[in-house]
Amino acid sequence: MVENFSGASTARLGARQWLAIGALGASFLVVAADSTIVYAAIPSIQRALDLSTATVQWLMSAFLISFGGVLLLSSRLAELFGRRRLFTIGLALMTAASMLSAVAWAGEVLIGARVLQGIGAALIATTALPLLAIALGPGPARVRALGLWTLIGAFGGTTGLLLGGLLTDTVGWRWVFLVNVPVGIVAALLAPILPADRCGGSGHPLEVAGGVSLVGALTLIGWTVVAAFAPGSSTGPALLRLAAAAVLLLLFLVIEARTGRRLVRPGLLRSRTRLGGLVVLFAAGTLIDAVLLLVTLYGQGALGLSATRFGALMVALTLSSVVGSYVGQVVVVRHGLRLVALTGMSVAGAGLLALAMVNGPLDTVDFLSVLPVVGVGAGAAFVAAQIAVTLGASDADSAAASGLSDASFSLGGALGLAAVSAVLVANQTELPVPMGAALPMAFTVTAGLAAIGLVAALLLMGQQRTPVPSQGT
């Protein structure tokens, strides 16, 4: 019961609170790290399972599409089933999917397991932080724990790259997935000590059916867009997927009209600034994941970097993006959303163009010189766009706005992976060594994706400044 956790703010934390922090924090770290941990292992997986580059991008796209889609629905599921129950379901699903990924004998099996991982990760990501807040109650303990939570989210991607490279080089790529299993099992065993929140049963099955329809439609649309970049793609299956998506969207609208509590209130998307923020987030997702895929294929292929050295190299991108996000938060207060988003996307795009224009083969010095520039720009644009999406949202709309924000970034990542994979496949056949004209062209395409975010920031985002927090809060 929630009452078992009361008093955490006025007394020292007890054993139950510490166990709750450990279980929830470790689970969230796994989710954050899983967004990048597979990248270092991609060349090894490609060789072991004999995958084409067109198939390789699905190792990440499958996760990103299912994760982004379910994020829109999971807050409503939490209202119906309760956060603790949904958290436990997410743990079980992600643990089972990780075990299946580790023993995958074919690319199709691994991609299917990655879809399940994305769903489980979305359920964990939505429920873990609210459960932590309930467990600790108001006061200093919660503030300190939330600070730790921010650090986990900020450095989770870096942790994934470093850990993924180390595991791949030492015990093999299958351990990139197996490492999730003990964490999931221990966290699931500790789940009964988490607070039984009072949200369970407050939702309605009809609302969930509407959410499932929307997630299904978004998934089909994302699948169609990503598959359109694959070589040999045909029109027939794409049209069937789009037709099915249209039917699901119509079903969603019918259900939303009949229920009193809508998943996404129409007025939420009437704000030009919020729409601009969603597009900027989508663009930021495309360029970050595109760069990660390009550098892992080129670095471990053409440059002969080990998976561990690749992970260390990519810290230049992930850590600089954290720096950019913190700087962006400060600058937004004084100069507004549009300027930060515009500057961030311009800086990131310029860095990508610099990589595309290098004469001759790229080396680690080139990457170490430019990746921090791309990271700082993308981080600043990301935080400005995220603020734009959530700023002004009412308490009732905050969950939907947050879900839209995360979904836009994840679905954008899937598109970025597909776009650069198509460029590589169209320009050469010997992979994973993107050389010749393929790599500069791929970086040029990625810079073009950044330009989409720049235009959205210029035309849609306002000059709003975020309020400066008062000293008493």
UniProtKB/TrEMBL annotation:
Q: Which UniProt keywords apply?
A: Cell membrane, Membrane, Transmembrane, Transmembrane helix, Transport
Span of domain Major facilitator superfamily (MFS) profile:
20-465
Give the way it sits in the membrane.
Answer: Multi-pass membrane protein
Query: PROSITE patterns from the xrefs?
Result: MFS (PS50850), SUGAR_TRANSPORT_1 (PS00216)
Q: Where does the record say this protein resides?
A: Cell membrane
The record's annotation in CDD domains points to:
MFS_MMR_MDR_like (cd17321)
PANTHER family according to UniProt: BLR6921 PROTEIN (PTHR42718:SF46), MAJOR FACILITATOR SUPERFAMILY MULTIDRUG TRANSPORTER MFSC (PTHR42718)
Protein name as annotated:
Major facilitator superfamily (MFS) profile domain-containing protein
